[in-house]
Predict the structure.
Amino acid sequence: MKYSLSTLAMVVFTGSVFAQDLSAPPSDSVEIVVPEMASACELAEPPAAIAVDADYDTLVAAQGGVKSFQASAEAYRECLDGVRDSPDLTEGNEIALNALHDQSVDLEEQVAGRFNEAVKAYKAANPN
């Protein structure tokens, strides 16, 4: 399953209001809109969480899912960068693209963090 751009944008913009740098806010007249061209950019659904008591084979399989998601996230950001090259973007489009980019980085970090926690738990339970 892929994240739809509108779903991701809704999540991004709900949280991004609180994350904005208030020292240089955009002007009040800026309309934050995801450029239509960005609809071609797709981010794969992140892999499922890994059980804390996962065995070695489960971790190896999960590692493949994590690496696949990371590749998808990188391709997604490259796609967004391609959209960013358009000369027709507004300030609001740039803000939206930055938020989508940042959201994908945050999601990738969460996925990697979950995997690393599962690996730590495995190593703690299997010290050999």
